[in-house]
Design goal:
Strand 14 and strand 15 (318-320) form a beta hairpin. The chain is of the alpha/beta class and 394 residues long. It is elongated and about 80 Å long. The chain has helices spanning 5-26, 50-67, 91-95, 155-168, 232-241, 258-262, 289-303, 333-336, 356-373, and strands spanning 30-34, 37-38, 40-44, 73-75, 83-87, 108-113, 125-130, 171-172, 180-181, 188-190, 195-197, 203-204, 245-246, 314-315, 318-320, 378-380. It starts with a helix and ends in a 14-residue tail after the last strand.
Length: 394
Amino acid sequence: MSMTRNSLEFAAILAMATTATGLRAMAAGVTLVENGQPRATIVLAERPTRAAQLAAYELQYHIRKITGVDLPMAAETQTATGARVLVGESAATRELGLKSADFAPQEYLIAFRPTGPTSPTAPNTLVLIGRDKADTNRVDYVSGNGFLDLFDEQGTLYAAYDFLERFCGVRWYLPTDLGITYTERGTLEVQGKDVRRSPDMKFRSVSPVYRIPADLCGDTVKSDKPTAALSWREIMLWQHRNRMGGSPRKANHSFYGYYDRFLKEHPEWFAQGYEKTSPKPPQLCYTHPDLIRQVIQDARDYFDGKGIKPGAQAAGDGFALVPMDNSQWCRCPRCQSLLLKEATIGKGEFSNNRASAYVFTFVNAVAREIKKSHPDKRLNVLAYMDWFTPPPFP
């Protein structure tokens, strides 16, 4: 295909115009601090959510560390000087068409809104907003009282941390100020494209964080003189900054409640072959059809909002199917046919595959039925001990 000189010139002009439009879309710069002076105000609703409160405190704290300047905070009914940093839903965000309830679970937005022809008197605006739990109780940033639970909806807080990472260069490598990295500067101007997203991993957790030593290097348990643990406030900030939490999940040994519920009336549901050596069976008989039906019913009851049975482990949209904390499996012929006499992976090690086919045959039997009634729900199981590896079937 050939092009004339005029068509080439037109294409070049069109490209420059398109590029200029794109640059304008990106160049919604917001100056937060200029030459050591505040040039923006953090604006909150009259009654902000706890997520918005903590987001505002964390934003103010980290900008102070970067610039040495405290950005003022104001309620939406108060006068805001300079650019606006709208944190959480408020009348100002609703004017922009942004409401917390319109976001999906864990979703958030970082948005740049410049002065424009439709609102020439409006200041440049940075918006940090997301799906928040509708809880407006007070957060005390100094003491940590009122900090959110990790599994509360807190999209606005996620937006603040993502903003600090993407646009301010902040990182959190360790708990406390020791682990925060950033570049000091007297002027902080931010600009870029809007970011609207939610975490790819819906559940995020690290355990046991309560054993982090206060000096970050001692031993809180085994030493003759154990080191004191890090304060609860610092532990919570560390987890929030790394976005621990999300959609709640539980996956732990989940059938201990069956002893009180069923052992007397249904001893056949429990591990056979231990009558002479153990006061009570160490496991269930995970191939017994009636036991499987009962587990399916317990899971369905939970998903239908009928509560959690004693000893069960469930949270959010997940129900746990985890055997007892031992490898003393049922000795009935059905169960034994699914157990390896010797592990073929991890032989002689704690983590092996001796019971992988056994445990996951049980899990699959429950899963097939739950899929029929609750296809959007989850069943949680550990990769642990004798069932550490995937089962030997698709």
